[in-house]
Design brief:
Layout: E1 4-9, E2 13-18, E3 28-30, E4 35-36, E5 40-42, E6 48-53, E7 62-67, E8 75-78, E9 91-94, E10 100-103, E11 109-112, E12 124-128, E13 134-138, E14 148-149, E15 157-158, E16 164-167, E17 173-174, E18 176-181, E19 184-195, E20 201-206, E21 209-216, E22 233-239, E23 243-250, E24 256-261, E25 267-272, E26 279-284, E27 300-302, E28 310-312, E29 316-318, H1 321-325, E30 333-335, E31 345-350, E32 361-364, H2 369-378, E33 384-386, E34 397-400, E35 407-408, E36 416-421, H3 422-445, E37 450-451, H4 458-462, H5 496-502, E38 511-515, E39 518-524, E40 530-536, H6 544-556, E41 565-571, E42 574-580, H7 587-591, H8 602-622, E43 637-639, E44 645-647, H9 665-668, H10 677-682, H11 687-703, H12 719-728, H13 746-759, H14 770-778
Helix pairs in contact: 8-11, 8-14, 11-13
The structure holds 2-acetamido-2-deoxy-beta-D-glucopyranose (8 copies).
One 2-acetamido-2-deoxy-beta-D-glucopyranose binds next to strand 19.
Protein name: Receptor-like serine/threonine-protein kinase
Signal peptide: 1-25
Domain Bulb-type lectin: 26-149
């Protein structure tokens, strides 16, 4: 059936395992059966899998559902998000009243489902459907009337067929709540929900602050939210006396699509387009200035592209002109001429905007626009009206009964009629038509919500080609505040605003990845050259001058196996470095991907091993700066178009001092699976720790398997231990991944395994230096015998109980 492994405690027991005896995949758990930590059930079509998992760098166990065939593991639902299990003793059972019980080892209840029946039935089962829905039903499970279903309790993900909204009869609410972080599925800061005050709208909040309003449904979409005809899914909004929800369905079930609310509050639709590409953002909601609820106050209109961003609707003027002109728009606008409730009021048509907040509104789906106007006129609180549904010429009546809030320019073709003093109206009529046209055009340009498909970044086209040749040799900029340093820097300076523009405001769409020292974004310069912008995280304690020193040092490091630094930015407490963009991205995207790994034959892999070794040797020795990388791993090896490896993130490690005492240790420096025992235990780093990481990398390159996620049916070792066992048995060639067998050069493979094992020795002193490694790789002299690697836990083998720190001479951590 299924077997899963996870790395638990790095230096006590390197890997814990759980195995399942059964070998046939099942999709149900019957009464009396138990799903243990080492078991999973798999939906009939093998789309989804249910079991226990460990998120990110956490050590906790959670019961969840993930895509069976997608790597990396993509969890779509979590049962015990608030109460983790701290060991592998968790058990899921179904009881005879159809309740799911998640119990810890000592039988305390961790989590349970809610059952609506209180009748015993020994035929109840829990079943994982191919839609990703975990349901409780009697054993036929034919009718849709489930006792319980996980679809009723979404976490941060909506799958096809899941309702997002509210059951108006039972009161059941289906919200999306972000995870706290990638390591922690407990409810995070962001919640997105369907609001049923007035005419329903979707909202997102951050903590208690309203952050984003998706606008009312216009018949084709939520006003202000993008939709595009697409071949992948259809979606709908259902509103009747029983329930209100939106839902999407897949057109082609073989394509996977999900709506996801990230821990950072980005709500997006992701499609699994192609097995080699991973999850592609298809629609992303960008939180920008104008999405700030109430930024422009009542009767204000926000336009992200204009300055100032807020204007008053026509016929309205700033309520507090002084504050308004100073950029505080929250006071909003008031009528230039008061209303005189009754027939004398007129209405001004406004289109090209996202509809105002409808939480205080009234509606009737059978009324037409004329009846709607009459209804508005009759009610003195009515400030505007419009159709509910723009399809088929428009139908229904929506009345706004409050100040009009949260309007922004948007390419929306629904018309809105704003109540206004009729005398005012006649004056404005002539000006009005022109305004509408302007509004429509402006909002077409300023689409906040960026649709992204097939890797085509729409914004790319917006960049106007200007003369920026020589940008890379242009050093000075008005924004630059570095004073006297200008002259001696032969490295281009980029201003924050410039980088912000080149990366579309550091949009998630341009995010290439997140690494030890910050987040990397892709950017396109005006001349079309692509760059990678690394925005350093704030963990550094360094000041401006120190940063500049580091940048200068890194800039002087030039080697064909190191990523080239193109520029930097040090401004507004933002430190960024700009690198060449390498189209083939990082080694891990090839190595650990079933399809793409076949593009790396042995010749290429051996070339990559050699290149990394040379780059590292240069850092350790030849550069005279003695740079210790500290986070060498497959994700930090970038590949150029000819598959030449280039080490990235080198030199940055020097900036992050004292990291091991910080809460963000795991994110900042070192990645489990790549760090040696002396660091894990004592936080001590030396060139030999890089050698250790290099050894892990070599074994990963040969095997195509991740050290951290490696699992075997025969033993409990990690990849290092596995390689060691094979080596001892003279079966090193068995380590070679299936896709490599045909291309491998046996002597080179054997030698590489051997060198890899020498590099991952438990004691730093037993590991070779990089200069030895380069020599060993390059000739065929006799190699020393390796001892068992670090973290090898086989009891019968004689090994030190505690990793030793002898002979570790260089430590950047000050310990
Ligand atoms: C799964 O774990 C249980 C105890 O947690 C154990 O009894 C069982 O043997 C394990 N199954 C396998 C295949 O390891
Ligand atoms: C469980 O369901 C019952 C009725 O179905 C409901 O009254 C109760 O509030 C629910 N409890 C929880 C914790 O959801
Ligand atoms: C859903 O979100 C709304 C608004 O934040 C909140 O009032 C409600 O309690 C939430 N319900 C659930 C079940 O999370
Ligand atoms: C569904 O998508 C798959 C993969 O893209 C394709 O091979 C198949 O033909 C599609 N089926 C239909 C009915 O469009
Ligand atoms: C903005 O103006 C409003 C009144 O219109 C005032 O209450 C508020 O304090 C002002 N905010 C700031 C930051 O000045
Ligand atoms: C909705 O409008 C129709 C047609 O004008 C009317 O017959 C009906 O009573 C209205 N419903 C409500 C709830 O006002
Ligand atoms: C306006 O209409 C709303 C909704 O029907 C109603 O609650 C309110 O009392 C009306 N106000 C006046 C002044 O008629
Ligand atoms: C428009 O406002 C003025 C006051 O500025 C008022 O005297 C007049 O009656 C209003 N006109 C209408 C049609 O309500």
């Amino acid at each position: 059936m299924s077997m899963r492994a996870f790395s638990q405690n790095l230096f006590l027991s390197s890997v814990l395992f759980s195995l399942l005896s059964n070998s046939v995949a099942v999709d149900t758990i019957a009464i009396g059966q138990a799903l243990r930590d080492n078991d999973t059930i798999v939906s009939a079509g093998e789309t989804y899998e249910l079991g226990f998992f460990t998120p990110g760098n956490s050590k906790n166990r959670y019961l969840g559902i993930w895509f069976k065939k997608i790597y990396p593991q993509t969890v779509v639902w979590v049962a015990n998000r608030e109460i983790p299990i701290t060991n592998t003793a968790g058990v899921l059972r179904v009881n005879s009243i159809g309740k799911l019980l998640l119990l810890s080892g000592d039988n305390t209840m961790i989590w349970s489902s809610n059952s609506s029946v209180f009748v015993r039935n020994d035929n109840f089962v829990a079943k994982l459907l191919d839609s990703g829905n975990l349901v409780v039903c009697d054993n036929s499970c034919t009718d849709q009337d489930f006792l319980w279903q996980s679809f009723d309790y979404p976490t941060d993900t909506l799958l096809a067929g899941m309702k997002f909204g509210k059951d108006l009869v039972t009161g059941l609410v289906r919200n999306l709540t972000s995870w706290k972080s990638m390591d922690d599925p407990s409810p995070g800061l962001y919640v997105s929900w369907m609001d049923t005050n007035g005419y329903p709208q979707a909202f997102q909040k951050r903590g208690s602050v309203l952050q984003l309003r998706f606008g009312p449904w216009t018949g084709v979409r939520f006003s202000g939210f993008p939709s595009k005809p697409n071949p992948i899914y259809t979606y709908d909004f259902i509103y009747n006396e029983k329930e209100v929800y939106c839902i999407f369905n897949l057109i082609n079930n073989s394509i996977m699509s999900r709506v996801y609310l990230s821990p950072e509050g980005n709500e997006m639709r992701l499609n699994w387009v192609d097995p080699t590409q991973g999850w592609m953002p298809y629609l992303v909601t960008t939180v920008d200035m104008c999405s700030n609820y109430g930024l422009c106050g009542a009767y204000g209109i926000c336009n992200i592209n204009s300055s100032p961003a807020c204007i008053c609707m026509e016929g309205f003027e700033p309520r507090y002109p002084v504050q308004w002109n100073a950029g505080n728009w929250t006071g909003g606008c008031k009528r230039e001429k008061p209303l005189k409730c009754g027939n004398e009021d007129g209405f001004r048509k406004l289109s090209g905007v996202k509809l105002p907040d409808t939480r205080n509104s009234w509606y009737n789906l059978s009324m037409n626009l004329r009846e709607c106007e009459q209804a508005c006129k009759r009610n003195c609180s009515c400030t505007a009206f419009g159709n509910m549904d723009i399809r088929e010429g428009g139908r229904g009546c929506l009345l706004w009964l409050d100040d009009l809030m949260d309007v922004r320019e948007y390419n929306e073709n629904q018309e809105l009629y704003i109540r206004i003093n009729a005398s005012k109206l006649s004056v404005m009529k002539s000006r009005f038509n022109r305004k509408v046209i302007e509004v429509v055009v402006a909002s077409m340009v300023g689409l906040v919500l960026v649709g992204l498909a097939m890797g085509v970044y729409a914004w790319k086209k917006k960049l106007s080609p200007t003369q920026r040749e020589g940008n890379l040799v242009k050093v000075l900029s008005e924004d630059y505040t570095g004073g006297g340093q200008k002259k001696d820097l032969d490295l281009p300076f980029f201003s924050f605003s410039e980088l912000s523009k080149l990366t579309d405001n550091f949009s998630v769409n341009n995010k290439l990845g997140e690494g030890g020292f910050g987040t990397v974004y892709k950017g396109v310069m005006e001349d079309g050259r692509e760059i990678a912008v690394k925005r350093l995280s704030e963990t550094s304690t360094q000041g401006h001058d120190e940063f500049m020193n580091e940048v200068r040092c890194i800039h002087r490091l030039q080697h064909r196996n190191l990523v080239k630094l193109l520029g930097f930015c040090a401004q507004k407490s933002e430190n960024m470095v700009i690198y060449e963009y390498l189209p083939n991205r990082s080694l891990d995207t090839f190595l650990f991907d079933e399809t793409k790994s076949s593009m790396l034959d042995w010749i290429k892999r051996f070339h990559i091993i050699n290149g990394i070794a040379r780059g590292l040797l240069y850092l350790h020795q030849d550069s005279r700066l003695r740079i210790i990388h500290r986070d060498l791993k497959a994700a930090n090896i970038l590949l150029d178009s000819d598959m030449n490896p280039k080490i990235s993130d080198f030199g940055l490690a020097r900036r992050f001092k004292g990291y091991e005492t910080r809460a963000k240790t795991k994110n900042v420096v070192g990645t489990y699976g790549y760090i040696p025992p002396e660091y894990a235990v004592h936080g001590v780093f030396s060139v030999k720790s890089d050698v250790f990481s290099f050894g892990v990398l070599v074994l990963e390159i040969i095997s195509g398997m991740k050290n951290r996620e490696f699992s075997s049916q025969e033993h409990r070792d990690n990849l290092l231990g596995h390689a060691w066992r094979l080596y001892k048995d003279g079966k090193s060639l068995d380590l070679v991944g299936a896709s490599l067998v045909s291309s491998c050069v046996i002597s080179e493979v054997l030698r590489s395994v051997h060198i890899g094992l020498l590099c991952v020795q438990n004691l730093a002193e037993d590991r070779p230096t990089m200069s030895s490694v380069v020599l060993m790789l390059g000739n065929d002299g006799i190699l020393p015998q390796p001892k068992p690697p670090a973290f090898f836990t086989e009891p019968e083998l004689d090994r030190p109980a505690q990793p030793s720190v002898n002979n570790v001479t260089i430590s950047l951590t000050g310990r």
